[in-house]
Specification:
globular; 14 helices; alpha/beta; eight-stranded mixed β-sheet; 36% helix; Rossmann fold
Length: 362
């Protein structure tokens, strides 16, 4: 089956993890997104096919930063395989002078979706946006530095994305919503919620709209895990330096549960695709150890709204124990574990993800 030109774009920004610049990271999170676009391209199939694996490999080709705080790429809104539902065109918002692209789909209670590192709105959420839009108004933006949004060469921090999310919601006049974040997006969502509920704001007109509910999916943001990902390789563990076939194989194995995603062709395609980049500066910026000052371990008690934590049982990037920690430190939080899934259950097991999420949204 011939590849649709847009599918390459769909995987493009997932791959931003720049392995050669972050040899210390054993499990680069951003690969998650690579999987999303691949699955989305074949959403009607129950098993991966070579076409899908090629997309996956490309998306994962240069993972620079294990935290990957999720996960996927700048998915093209026009990349569609036969039988796949078509997302509408992205809309445009101007925030602090920067162009931000986003999806706005459906009507009803508002859901705000925040994607992970090296990913995009379609990359992380492409398989579940339309099902959610049947009963909700879905807002999913390509965060600054990713996807189709502007990619300025600035010093990024979690607060950067919190500020942009707040401005976006103020501009959209959203006041009652459920905030859902995956990986890096979960870290941002947690920090945003803490500050919104505490009334932290830089000025009287800059208050953060308060979410009514919070969902954290395989979320980054805990100090010990982030420090490990930022630190040197474990003793006796050989680091893979530079973009390479060995690096591709290691990364794919760390992200996906199924070994079917590690074919020789997938590795070839991944290495070739590593030459096509767009958000590497952003990923370099997230590598900054100063972000450890923005971890949320000791702040989770400030989250007092209903919270759901969803985690892939076999997440090799952010361990399940982190999910249990989030759930234990947020009063009343519920933990849902997705079996046979790795770091991105909304991509690898979208039906199971929706089964865990929808009851919470009712």
């Amino acid at each position: 089956m011939a590849r649709k030109p847009g599918l390459q774009e769909a995987a493009l920004h997932l791959t931003k993890i720049v392995l050669d610049d972050f040899p210390n990271t054993e499990f680069p999170l951003s690969i998650v997104e690579c999987m999303n676009n691949g699955v989305a391209a074949n959403r009607t199939l129950s098993h991966p096919i070579p076409h899908w694996r090629q997309i996956v490999a490309r998306a994962c080709s240069s993972v620079m930063f294990g935290i990957v705080l999720c996960t996927v790429s700048m998915a093209s809104a026009h990349a569609v395989a036969p039988g796949e539902a078509v997302l509408p065109e992205q809309k445009t918002a101007t925030l602090f002078g920067a162009t931000i692209r986003y999806y706005e789909i459906g009507s009803g209670p508002v859901l705000v979706l925040v994607h992970g590192l090296g990913s995009s709105a379609k990359g992380d959420w492409g398989r579940i946006m339309l099902p959610l839009a049947q009963t909700h108004r879905v807002l999913a933006l390509d965060q600054l530095g990713f996807g189709n949004s502007d990619k300025p060469q600035i010093d990024f921090g979690i607060q950067t994305w919190v500020d942009f999310l707040g401005e976006f919601l103020r501009q959209k006049q959203v006041t009652d919503f459920t905030l859902i974040g995956e990986s890096l997006g979960g870290w941002i969502a947690a920090q945003y919620t803490i500050q919104a509920l505490q009334g932290v704001a830089a000025g009287p007109t800059l208050t953060l709209p308060k979410p009514s509910r919070l969902v954290l999916a395989d979320s980054a943001g805990l100090y010990a895990t982030m420090k490990k990902l930022f630190g040197p390789p474990l003793s006796g563990k050989q680091a893979v330096v530079g973009a390479s076939l060995a690096g591709e194989k290691q990364l794919l194995a760390s992200v996906f549960v199924s070994p079917s995603f590690r074919t020789d062709q997938a590795l070839r395609d991944g290495l070739a695709w590593s030459l096509s980049k767009g958000d590497s500066w952003t990923i370099h910026a997230v590598r900054n150890p100063a972000l450890l000052n923005e971890t949320v371990d000791n702040k989770l008690g400030a989250i007092t709204i209903p919270t759901l934590v969803i985690w892939g049982r076999q997440d090799a990037l952010l361990p399940l124990k982190d999910g249990r920690y989030f759930a234990s430190r947020i009063a009343g939080a519920e933990l849902k574990i997705i079996a046979d899934s790795g770091h991105a259950p909304m991509i690898e097991a979208p039906d199971a993800f929706l089964s865990a999420l929808l009851p919470f949204l009712r």
